[in-house]
Automatic annotation (TrEMBL), chain B:
This is ABC transporter substrate-binding protein. It comes from Oceaniradius stylonematis. InterPro entries: BCAA_transport, Leu-bd, Leu_Ile_Val-bd, Peripla_BP_I. Residues 28-368 form the Leucine-binding protein domain. Belongs to the leucine-binding protein family.
Automatic annotation (TrEMBL), chain C:
One of its GO terms (biological process) is L-amino acid transport. Gene3D superfamilies: P-loop containing nucleotide triphosphate hydrolases. Residues 2-235 form the ABC transporter domain. PANTHER family: HIGH-AFFINITY BRANCHED-CHAIN AMINO ACID TRANSPORT ATP-BINDING PROTEIN LIVF. PROSITE patterns: ABC_TRANSPORTER_1, ABC_TRANSPORTER_2. GO terms for molecular function: ATP binding; ATP hydrolysis activity; branched-chain amino acid transmembrane transporter activity. Pfam families: ABC_tran (PF00005). This is ABC transporter ATP-binding protein. It comes from Oceaniradius stylonematis. Belongs to the ABC transporter superfamily.
Length: 293, 374, 235
């Protein structure tokens, strides 16, 4: 292949993988918004916890990377259940804005708690796939990044099937579209809350476990995650899972091309610019329906 | 020199021992330690304060200063932000009435904080590398680290003379410090015939550098120079350099090597060069004593940033004794400027604007350890 | 079988229902009529558990239900077809019918029997099984809302203004459907602003004004009641 084309392909690959991490983060965020109409600023902290739990599961329990990642995902999913039980469920009748501010408080609590318990020093989640390279012709991708993409794609398919085909998935969609109608149909709204937070926090943790080995982790890393998540969610449309998928991949690829052909210093600004352009063109995001009155 | 310092220490200990019984109840000398203790720089701030604590313990075990006054650290969190640095310094001066201030680990904080301390309190700036910290400093302000200009002078000499490179590319943090770095090295390295093939800036909260590194790899330079002041980003960059398939030489920016970075970067940092004021295998007895004390008190490995913290305490303690005063800042500053100080990092002198002159060592990661290169 | 006694309801500090008592006897059709804002919907929401009464009791089959969760109330056989249908606009007809059965009261018709019955009552829904609720006509949406309710196997079915927004021909069909449900043993509590229609379907009626029951009588007597005639029958 010609040099320029190789470089372009490489950058698009880089972007797709980064985009998939954004998708995993944004999916939980958009799920919680879509089903429960909650904007959860603490979502990034569950990503952070996923990465740290993976680190400690490997270190303290002696687990291999994959088992540690699974344990972390399940552990944080349980924390999601607790966060709902003691935090979001009791607040459900409050104004949306109150809930949003409270979630900001929860984020601070988890970050500071993280600094206290995990220490401020950065940590590295070791993975046997981190440095192994999968050569796809002249294009280079590490095994870890292939894993991120493959697991991300698989999880999205499973999530799609869960939401479309299972009884619980249907109850979640019903709650999303008409909470009162759902309650009068017999949907146990509290269980829907529980399952939604469990799935969303589990997804965030899975993203943390997968992305952990590609960078360093520290207790404030959740701020980065939630920022990326929100860009994607706004881009794709609040509450839309296909929107999170397309939005995440677009953001990843655009950042990679901007970084690769202009400058990484601009990549972030370009992320924000595409949001503005998309919102001017489609105020509810690429896949967003107008919000119900 | 060594003999002299041992002599000095012994004498000091003697005097101290003689007077301690009488003077033990005196007011401590209170030193404000303003450092990033939360947020992304929290780990670096922790290492810095630990380094100071260890040296304070040594000084106090030897009888403190001014005939038996103990040193006491009062810590403040600047969160790595200029605004927080300013408010911490104000609190230290106005509310807590501390005797001296040690701070300025990041240049952005040092540059704003110096305006609060100007003509009010004696201030030691530490790892900040921006030339303006001292160039636009004040009569009672000193800075220990070499400026980025001094560093780049020494480092580019090493690079040109020893590394046999024909081309180089940079990946640099996008701030005042980073831009100055690139400007300096592009000029200095071009002068000795190394071709500069590119520079990529990144932001201080980026976590993925593969796009920039892919681009640099495509330019195929003999070496990539990594300017990273924060340990987490640094380690990520060193790992990702290998992960994008680059196999050339990696050069780490001056003054940012620490054991944690080595641990986090794994094999990616093996053989990588940097320069430091801290010669890791130095046998200086003061350094050894500090390392021993540090390891006794803390879990982290002693680091360069910690040794700069320790040096600030050492210079202050010796100068306060020599001047016979803490609060007469004019006298104390005159004393600091007018003498050579024997510290754990070797001998230090200060010029008219308070800038330290000290040794700069070339170091390399060998078998997962920071080692000096001679 | 369904009995509300001395119910009071407030939204925040504002009391909207005052000492309300209603009895819906087994197998009968009872209607609750009143003008807009009288509090009819609030009464049904309170029975369904969406709103908690500040005082009073609601007994179904002799058991108190006023502290139960909405889905548990449905399991006892008390089912509501809400005002405005409250359908899930992006979900298919089949999915609505499936969800309708998730908390079905056990006993009586099996799920398969109910499904067959629903499609017999509303054959159009069978044709439109895969269509999204949001794309149905107003009449079809009301049919779907009733079908969803029937799937819950109600013993007592509450309908909140089912005629709202329907064309006259659809209103007749609706009346037939309500009659058919009642003939099949389902007790009905019908809330309507169309007082004439409601009283013609009902055995008994209650008139609600600003949160208080002001008149209570047999439906045919109410049709003749001068105060009802003047206020609600436009005579
Ligand atoms: N969620 C609510 N919050 C506050 N007030 C309400 C709410 N819902 C209804 N109301 C008020 O309660 C009263 C009764 O309303 P409603 O039960 O809907 O009456 P109806 O169904 O007879 O038209 C009205 O004055 C209405 O404004
Ligand atoms: Mg109503």
């Amino acid at each position: 292949m010609e040099m320029e084309l190789v470089l372009l392909t490489q950058q698009i690959m880089n972007g797709l993988v980064n985009g998939m991490t954004y998708v995993l983060i944004a999916t939980g965020l958009t799920l919680v918004f879509g089903v429960l109409h909650i904007i959860n600023f603490a979502h990034g902290e569950f990503y952070m916890l996923g990465a740290f739990f993976t680190f400690f599961a490997a270190k303290l329990l002696g687990l291999d990377y994959i088992s540690a990642g699974i344990v972390a995902t399940l552990g944080v999913a349980v924390l999601g259940i607790l966060a709902n039980r003691f935090f979001f469920w009791p607040l459900r009748k409050e104004h949306e804005f109150t809930v949003l501010l409270s979630s900001l408080g929860l984020a601070l609590l988890l970050t500071n708690g993280g600094e206290l318990i995990f220490g401020a020093d950065p940590k590295y989640v070791a993975s046997p796939f981190a440095d192994g390279i999968v050569p796809l012709g002249p294009v280079i991708v590490t095994q870890q990044r292939m894993l991120i993409f493959a697991v991300g794609a698989l999880v999205l398919v499973l999530l799609y099937l869960f939401i479309q085909k299972t009884r619980m998935g249907k109850m979640m969609r019903a709650t999303a579209q008409n909470p009162e109608g759902a309650a009068l149909t017999g949907v146990d709204i509290r269980r829907v809350y529980t399952v939604t937070f469990m799935v969303a926090c589990g997804l965030a943790a899975l993203a943390g476990a997968l992305v952990g080995p590609t960078a360093m982790i520290f207790p404030t890393v959740g701020t980065w995650a939630v920022l990326k998540g929100f860009i994607v969610v706004v881009l794709g449309g609040l509450g839309s899972i296909p929107g999170a998928l397309i939005g995440g991949l677009i953001l990843g690829v655009v950042e990679a091309l901007a970084g690769g052909y202009i400058s990484m210093g601009f990549a972030q600004a370009i992320g924000f610019s595409i949001i503005i352009v998309v919102l001017l063109w489609r105020p509810n995001g690429l896949f967003g329906a107008a919000r119900r009155a | 020199m060594r003999l002299q310092s041992i002599l000095a220490a012994t004498t000091a200990a003697f005097i101290a021992a003689g007077t301690m019984a009488v003077q033990a109840q005196e007011e401590p000398v209170r030193i404000a330690a303003i450092a990033p203790l939360s947020g992304p720089g929290a780990f670096d701030g922790q290492l810095a304060v630990e380094g100071m604590e260890a040296m304070v313990a040594i000084v106090n075990e030897n009888g403190g200063v001014l005939d038996g006054r103990m040193l006491e650290l009062v810590t403040y969190d600047d969160k790595g932000s200029p605004e927080e640095g300013v408010s911490a310094a104000k609190r230290a001066i106005e509310q807590d009435d501390v005797d001296v201030i040690v701070g300025g680990w990041f240049s952005s904080v040092a540059l704003t904080m110096k305006e609060v301390t100007r003509d009010r309190i004696l201030t030691i700036m530490t790892t900040s590398q921006h030339p303006d910290t001292t160039r636009e400093g004040h009569d009672w302000l000193f800075r220990l680290n070499a400026t980025s200009t001094m560093m780049s002078g020494a480092y580019s000499q090493f690079i040109c003379d020893r590394m046999d490179l024909e081309s180089i590319a940079f990946i640099t943090i996008n701030d005042d410090y980073g831009r100055l770095e690139v400007e300096n090295y592009e000029k200095l390295l071009s002068e000795c015939g190394i071709e500069v093939l590119g520079n990529e800036y990144y932001n201080k909260d980026d976590a993925d550098f593969t796009t920039a590194l892919t681009k640099l790899r495509a330019a195929n330079p003999d070496a990539i120079y990594v300017s990273a002041i924060n340990t987490a980003q640094g380690a990520t960059i060193y790992r990702q350099i290998r992960q994008v398939g680059y196999r050339g030489t990696t050069i780490a920016s001056a003054g940012n090597m620490n054991p944690k970075l080595v641990e986090l970067s794994g094999p990616a940092l093996e053989g990588v060069y940097s320069v430091s004021l801290f010669a890791p295998d130095s046998q200086d007895p003061e350094l050894l004593a500090w390392v021993a004390k540090y390891e006794e008190m803390f879990d982290n490995e002693p680091s360069f940033i910690g040794s700069i913290g320790a040096q600030s305490i050492e210079v202050l303690a010796e100068a306060i004794d020599a001047a016979g005063t803490v609060r007469d800042y004019g006298e104390l500053a005159e004393t600091i400027r007018g003498n050579e100080w024997d510290t754990l990092l070797g001998n230090v002198t200060f010029d008219d604007i308070g800038q330290a002159e000290q040794n700069i060592y070339l170091i390399q990661i060998q078998d997962g350890k920071i080692a000096s290169v001679n | 079988m369904l009995e509300l006694r001395d119910i009071n309801v407030s939204y925040g500090r504002r009391a909207v229902i005052h000492d309300l008592s209603i009895t819906v006897p087994d197998g009968k059709v009872v209607t609750l009529v009143g003008s807009n804002g009288a509090g009819k919907t609030t009464v049904l929401k309170t029975i369904s558990g969406l709103v908690r009464p500040t005082s009073g009791t609601i007994m179904f089959d002799g058991k108190p239900i006023e502290r139960m969760e909405p889905h548990d109330i449905i399991s006892t056989g008390v089912v509501q077809i809400p005002e405005g249908r409250l359908l899930f606009k992006d979900m298919s007809v089949a999915e609505h019918i499936e969800l309708g059965g998730i908390r079905a009261h056990s006993g009586g018709r099996t799920e398969a029997e109910r499904l067959a019955w629903v499609y017999e009552l509303f054959p159009i829904l069978r044709e439109r099984r895969e269509q999204k609720a949001g794309t149905l006509s107003g009449g079809q949406q009301q049919m779907l809302a009733i079908a969803r309710g029937i799937m819950a196997n109600p013993r007592c079915l509450m309908l909140d203004e089912p005629s709202l927004g329907l064309a006259p021909i659809m209103v007749d069909q609706l009346a037939d459907a309500i009659r058919a449900l009642n003939e099949n043993g389902i007790t009905i509590l019908l809330v309507e602003q169309r007082v004439d229609l409601a009283l013609r379907l009902a055995d008994r009626g209650y008139v609600l004004e600003t949160g208080r029951i002001v008149i209570e009588d047999a439906a045919d007597s109410l049709l003749e009641n001068p105060r009802v005639k003047e206020a609600y029958l436009g005579a």
